[in-house]
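Researcher: Go.
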Amino acid sequence: MKVLVTGTSGQLGYDVMMELKKRGHEGIGADRAASEADFEHVILDITDAKKVSEVVNEIKPDAIVHCAAWTNVDGAEDPNNRDVVMAVNVEGTANLAKAAKDVDAKFMYISTDYVFNGQGERPWEPDDKDYAPLNVYGESKLDGEKEVSKILDKYFIVRIAWVFGKNGNNFIKTMIKVGETHDVVEVVSDQIGTPTYTFDLARLLVDMIETDKYGYYHATNEGGYISWADFAEEIYKDAGMDVKVVAVSTEEYEKKAGKTVAKRPFNSRLDKAKLVEAGFEPLPSWQDAVKRYIEEL
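Model: Structure:
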């Protein structure tokens, strides 16, 4: 199978490429700039509809895994950035979806729990339609979802949360860095979700793209729902660092640190039962994933 993967300089795109290579599929990476990674790639600005069409029609992939996105949640709130955010996350996604349709390729769009309002305690189900993004990033990813579902029939929309991987920055790297200079760290305890290790997720995404079980899915590691404070405690334990985690509310944290620009969801619980119902193997526990990741670091 020939697969075009966007955003291969990021945490997830890179791991998807490695998983494709491991299975003997032909993976072709696509990113805005040249890559030093050891795999075939093309330079592609997904906001350029003509270029996207040319590249996809030339490659003629069997599937496209669309990982590229504007992911700076706070930066997206800057009015000066809004047009760029929408161009990347909405127009860029639509350009790729139209090109996928032209060559009859399967399409996978990586989305986020931020499409929901983040309230309550009930886990969000993949086919829930009561969307209400709290911020511009969530709004842009939801609009991207809508473009995919409007243009295509053969698509997977996979929502993830609390992502960490080898490439790029993430919560684990931040906590370890902060813990090197602080004995006590304050972390919010009223935002609840489950971490997602891109190494594990990449395996699942390739499992999915090898099938025609299209639709909306949620994918995070197993192991239950936790707070960011719980996450931090596990990180320090596995890293062997003597750092005390003090749990605080989002309101308390924002008062001390200066209010964050974008509103974050309190409820990032994602229901993953549909994965099992479709016959896909769930991801390992987040506890196991954190341990493996820190050993890898």
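Model: The CA atoms of residues 213 and 277 lie 11 Å apart.
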